[in-house]
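User: Quick one: structure for sequence A, then sequence B.

Assistant: Sequence A:
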Amino acid sequence: MDEAAQVLVENINNQTSPFALLFEFDGDKKVTRHVLYNCTCTRPSVSGGTTTNTKEPSTETMNLTASPLPNGNTKARTTVDTPAAQYAGWYDAVWQPLGELVVTSAAGATSGKTALTVAPELTRGNSYKYQTSAFVALPAYGQVLSEGWTDWDGSEEITATTGQQIAVVEVNADKQAMAGGVAKVTANSGG
């Protein structure tokens, strides 16, 4: 074996990537699960000691910092109202709330059409999808939208029925939901 392969070198210029820390406290009667977003930590301290007959493990210490994400979120936790599937899948992916869009529907220029406005503006590189029905439910953050959702360019009038709901969701390049909002449809009655 090459001797150089056995030596690990740490360079002060190496940068760590931010990460999310998901955890729960052993013995917590409510079994609350937590996530800290955008974490960074210091290098661990190194210490030594003499060997004795005890089986106490040696520990290393590091400082952890959780900084806000661009949307301002720093942490989240489960509650008694957390849906069972979300609670069970807590450690499968980093949970985040779906961002909010304000969707407004007004009568379009032609019969059966609605004109939508959405705020805030679309994030560069993202696109919109919509769905209309008597009742529409917004997806979870990061959910891939494919079946049942229609692409929308953000300006074209949409065929919809007055009184129904319309959901608009901003998706990233991978079609994952980033933000969404629902409005009651107001369409041109053609009268």
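Sequence B:
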Amino acid sequence: MSVSPAAVVAQDAADPEEPGEAAADTSVALPPAAPGVTQPAKKEPDVEFVWTQFLGTSIRNGIDDRWRYGGRVDIYAKVPGSVIGLDDSFTVNIHPELRYGQSINGEIGVLPVQTGLFYPTDDGTQFDLSLSVKKTWQSGTSLEVGKVNVLDIAAGLPVVGGGGIEGFENLAFALPPSTIVPQSMLGAMLTVPTKGALYRLWVFDPVIQTQDTGFESPFSTGVGALASVTFPVKLGGKPGYYAIKLSGTTRKGPPVEVLPAALRPVPGGSFGNARGQASVVLAAYQYLGLYKDAPGKGWGAFGQVFFSDGDPTPLDVSGIFGISGDVPFRPQDHFGLAWFRYSLSDKLVDDLAPFVGFEDEEGVEAFYTLQVAKPLRITADVQYIDSTVAGRKPGWAVGLRAVTRF
């Protein structure tokens, strides 16, 4: 299968926050045991096996509406430092992932409607591995270095979190794209929690590292950085998190390594010749209801706006807004309803106009997740999308998703 147009905005991802990370493991190294004193036992690795299956169809005039099946297997392992001879202020994070089968990505809109089947790649049986080492100090400050799957961070977002395996399936919500911060990232992430805010600084290779170690030619195209601050705020006694994020890279031109041929800069065109990319993101996650009979459960609203100069970043202005959370009468279930709008750079659209017409992509998504048993959750998902490809009529993406955790 040829590369889907979805790659234009999806292979590189926006920079999600994870306010809950302030509660990270803050254990520290133990002193040598005194004579006659038993040293505490080593911690055991924390391993979770997740099997996710997708069934979906596209409904639009002129396309094949057959149901397509695909899936993925993820293993999330956190290995305490004491297991490998370090102290337990260190953690080794290992995430192997295997994707297989078919998807309906690219049939309706440009953004993937099944994020879980878009990575590591959008077709066939594909494998990838993320590996990083994290050091956490007593203050809660942490430094993580290595290859990181940013979807794992997005899964921890309050209200909207899921990362495509849980929650929303469209990339617009699962991992809002920026085309600046890559989804699979080689770099270092510093997180500093304080009483009044959570600060982050990421330094990374701007080239996506899917199915690469990241050490083949690190930082050969430049360097990227993200700086953000997240403020915890209570409204009406309900917790909320409000973030400002600045990101950019020094690379020249757009991320051509992930763009299909039809969306690469036109030779001699006005788009894609500049060096340096930058963006500003404003994001909010606010709980509106908490359930007294189900601690930790509730629902809320979320939103994000993205701004870029649009050259050489293929996106210029984008926004999402929605509600999501746990169901009051069945807090083990989950629901969501949200809207998105994404815009390609005006310069890119003008350069490509003689070949293909593009406009803003807009859509809505709704889902309901039913917990059938503790390890099994089934989601019904429906999306209505008006594609960025001007010649396409709006259409529907309808799907089922089953997640089994061990």
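Residues 207 and 257 are 8 Å apart (CA to CA). The chain has a mean pLDDT of 88.

User: Thanks, that's what I needed.
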